[in-house]
Design brief:
About 35% of the residues lie in helices and about 30% in strands. The protein is an alpha/beta fold. The relative contact order is 0.20. It has two domains: about 1-60 and about 125-290, P-loop containing nucleotide triphosphate hydrolases (Rossmann fold, 3-Layer(aba) Sandwich), CATH 3.40.50; about 65-110, Alpha-Beta Plaits (2-Layer Sandwich), CATH 3.30.70. Helix 7 (about 195-210) links the parallel strand 9 (about 185-190) and strand 10 (about 215-220). This is MinD superfamily P-loop ATPase, contains an inserted ferredoxin domain. Keywords: Iron, Iron-sulfur, Metal-binding. One of its GO terms (molecular function) is iron-sulfur cluster binding.
Length: about 290
């Protein structure tokens, strides 16, 4: 089962939840994999402390123009939807940071003046954190295109066991690439007006992908009715609440997962996993009946 942990904004405690869940479930399955898809700033390693055993570089192909062959017809620039090419009267200028590596410019060049050259945009590292398999993507400094790195690190998931994906914050392209294909998305929300607005955006995004979802309220107070009311109105299950706690905040600042703060959280995450499994099964039955 693939569970994506996401949030509509940064700072909700998404990585704390994802790493704590992965550690809590390692006794329930022969194989648990944690994949850090927040490739612009991965931080799951702070809580899991993995031993890195290998890495792979990630490349995309960007165009290189042969000035001797180029007739400056401009077809390549007209084709490029991302404005990675600019045709002037003297030359065709390439902006590699805009290129998505589709190769359309090479395909349509009438004089074969375009050659695609590899450009490193990131790295995927893999290792072990206890019995939890670990993988993280890291975008190269100065690179702008993160979805290919997200897709590359997701390939380290298998059909076996439990896979926890720690998605980037927000609702942009990297998040969509992270959540797409998951069996379930756990949305971490905080009980504030800003948190509600961003949760609503995240719910719309996840539902547009056809992925069932539920909500975990972090830093919950006695009166977290703002989020709970929204969940009732939008038929969302509140699967868990983590209270606003000085002890939890202090442990977080030291990189300590929730299960190490109090063993009750290990039991809570195992329970939430069973609830998610039941929700996914019911969703499948409902789709079959429809």
């Amino acid at each position: 089962m693939i569970i994506a942990v996401a949030s509509g904004k940064g700072g909700t405690g998404k990585t704390t939840v994802a790493t704590s869940m992965a550690l809590s479930l390692q006794d329930m399955s022969s194989e648990v994999t944690f994949i850090d898809c927040d490739v612009e700033e991965p931080n799951g390693h702070i809580f899991l402390c993995p031993q890195i055993t290998g890495s792979d570089n990630i490349y995309i192909e960007v165009p290189e123009i042969d000035r001797q062959k180029c007739t400056r017809c401009g077809k390549c620039a007209d084709l490029c939807a991302f404005n990675a090419l600019l045709a002037t009267s003297d030359e065709v200028i390439v902006f590699p940071e805009f290129c998505h590596g589709c190769g359309g410019c090479r395909y349509f060049c009438p004089v074969e003046a375009v050659t695609m050259m590899p450009k490193k945009i990131g790295t995927v590292e893999k290792g072990l954190a206890g019995r939890v398999k670990f993988a993280r993507g890291r975008l190269e400094v100065g690179a702008a295109l993160s979805p290919p790195v997200v897709d590359a690190v997701k390939k380290h998931s298998t059909d076996q066991g439990i896979i926890i994906l720690d998605a980037p914050p927000g609702t942009s392209c990297p998040v969509i690439h992270s959540v797409r294909g998951s069996d379930f998305c756990l949305l971490v929300a905080e009980p504030t007006s800003f948190g509600l607005n961003d949760l609503d955006l995240a719910v719309q995004m996840v539902r547009s992908l056809g992925v069932p979802c539920g909500v975990l309220i972090n830093r919950a107070r006695e009166r977290s009715c703002l989020i709970e009311k929204y969940c009732r109105e939008h038929e969302l299950n509140v699967l868990m609440k983590i209270p606003l706690s000085k002890d939890i905040a202090g442990a977080y600042s030291r990189g300590i997962p929730l299960g190490a703060v109090d063993g009750k959280w290990n039991k809570a995450f195992r329970r939430i996993y069973r609830d998610i499994r039941e929700l996914v099964a019911n969703e499948g039955n409902n789709r079959y009946q429809r």
